[in-house]
Amino acid sequence: MSSDVKTPVGSGNGGGQQEFYAYEYKEQMERDVFAAISKPKPIYYLALLITISCVGIGAVSWAIQIANGLGEAGLMNPVGWGVYITDFVFWVGIAHSGTLISAILFLFRAKFRNRFNRTAEAMTVFAVLTAGLFPLIHLGRVWFAYWLFPYPNQRYLWVNFKSPLVWDVFAVSTYLTVSVVFWYIGLVPDLALARRLKTGAIQKKIYGIFSLGWTGTFREWQHYNQLYKFLAALATPLVLSVHSVVSWDFAMGIVYGWHSTIFAPYFVAGAIFSGCAMVLTLMVPMRKIFHLEEYISIDDFEKLAKLLMLTGLIVSYSYIVELAMSAYSGNVYEYEQFMYRFTGDYAWAYWTMIFCNVISPLTLFIRKLRRSVVYLFILSIPINIGMWFERFNIIVISLAKDFDPYNFGLYSPSWIELGITLGSFGWFFTWFLLFAKSIPVLPVTELKEEVE
Amino acid sequence: MIHRFKDKSHFMKKLEELLEEGHTKKDMRIVIPHPDHDVEHLVEHYWKPSKLKYFTLAGGLTGCLTGYIFTSWTAIDWELVTGGKPFFSWPAYTVIAFELTILLGALFSLAGLLVMGRLPRFSKMFNPESYGNEFVIILNEDK
Fold first, then answer.
1. Which listed residue, of A231, A350, A351, B92, carries a Cα 20 to 30 Å from A29's Cα?
2. Is the CB of residue A379 less than 8 Å from the CB of residue A312?
3. Are residue B93 and residue B108 in the same domain, yes or no?
4. Cα(first)–Cα(last) distance of chain A, in Å?
């Protein structure tokens, strides 16, 4: 019954002019991707040890803050929001490009997404997990965090649904839930594959449970395809809304430098910009370490670099518009606020941001640099730093010089805040390292679909 | 009877024959290693397409209505003016309604897959049949 006639398939996967046979190619791909999640080397445990130590530093810092109160943070009057909210916006932003790659590029049928989507979605989930900690850390009495959720209490008072902070609770928890569902659904067929390919008895059982007993019948695929499409269609407006809602935490306030209608699109573009940079930070070493050069080509990286360039230009444009609006607004306070950004106490932070987010991505116009994986990795670091400073500038500079000159004040983060920030990076990378050794880092099933 | 193919075009030919003969979901099971648009188009020409979209629609509508009704109800349940805004501040509630539309839309769709795809299937978790990367057609399984 079986037919062994081989159909030659053009590679299109960076394999040059070679011809592959679809069936063998799929088998080979399985082997290569699963080789990446085999038993880890000692260096992996060393990396894990470092990230977990960072988590430990963060945990101790937070414990000190809980024990002694919020005074341990450098927050003061008028700068009541500092590094914690900066970190929150930074991590939510990092999450965004994962959804862009997995959902928006899926709807646009951009095939290069299949190289990055598994990692990018994992990054999304872990970044939202990290971001979600910061509103809690920022609370003076964290054990009352549940007050943010709408539940009936004995005084019959509900949360204020007109408040952007409550919108944020809804936006971020929806985002976390939908990203997890989207990621997991994409994973199910690959987990079924892991159940088949893994040899350890316990491993087989674990993958079996998480694969939901998936067998790949047409009935399953039929509903699966519909579900995936709908999730992508739902996640697309969601991702745009989440960072808009985050931006409204600021824009709904009346502080100069915050109260601006450009904030929503400006934040979304910035989020995708920083997220693409983080994808590069993670994927370039991963491709090298796991020997996935055959599956993720320079062309794929170049497309990601172009996305980085595009969003970088949108961000630069937003900076100009923001500036122009304040200059032409005729509002002296608004104008003063921007002059303060360029020349005031935090000018160094502002110019760091301009260098990282505006100047450095311009180098991507040079084709040679855009196609150099090493350069992309190096570039991704200042962009990550620059985007962190962007949020720092918006939050801290605007607050430091608000309405009443008698009330002006300067903020500098305390060691507790820096420890917690370090902890958040440790937390994120710990999750990521665990992911990289337990789940296929490339979406094997989707790549197989591409072969046909 | 099991037909196994390593090659998609031969599988498609056989599949079309069998569908032409009038085999239905009841006596024929198709197992494929990855989603495939050609197979989907071919089969859905004979069999009904997925009804998952109704789950999504139901979830989306539930979320949207809940978002507006719940927020408005809490505002009038104990009247307390905040920010000088009216009790029924629909533009503000739109954000909540929007997020809940997406949340419940996604969760209902997930439920749709689990219900209609009959997952999770405990019997297949630990000793699954496996055909690797082959395209498979299984006929008259029960007989």
1. A231
2. no
3. yes
4. 21
Nearest alpha carbon to residue A353 among A327, A307, A322: A322
Length of chain A: 452
Residues B58 and B105 in one domain: yes
Element containing residue B108 per DSSP (H, E)? helix B90-116
* pTM exceeds 0.90: yes
Q: Flag if B126 and A174 touch (Cβ within 8 Å).
A: no
ipTM above 0.90, yes or no: yes
- pLDDT, one tens digit for every residue, chain B (143 residues): 899 988 888 899 999 999 999 888 888 999 999 998 999 999 988 999 899 999 999 999 999 999 999 999 999 888 888 888 899 999 999 999 999 999 999 999 999 999 998 889 888 888 777 888 889 999 987 65
Q: Which residues of A touch B32 (CB under 8 A)?
A: 216, 218, 221
Which of A218, A232, A186 minimizes the C-alpha distance to B44?
A218
Give how far A422 is from chain B: nearest CA, Å.
31
Number of domains in chain A: 1
Which residues form the domain of B6? 2-46+127-139
Q: Domain range spanning residue A382? A: 8-451
Written as six digits, the tokens of B78 are 């104990």
List the single residue in B with minimal CA-CA distance to A192: B125
Half-sphere exposure of A297 (CA within 13 A, CB side): 9
Nearest neighbour of A5 by CB, restricted to B7, B44, B129: B7
pLDDT tens digits, one per residue of A184-208: 999 999 999 999 888 888 988 999 9
- Whether residue A1 lies inside any domain: the answer is no
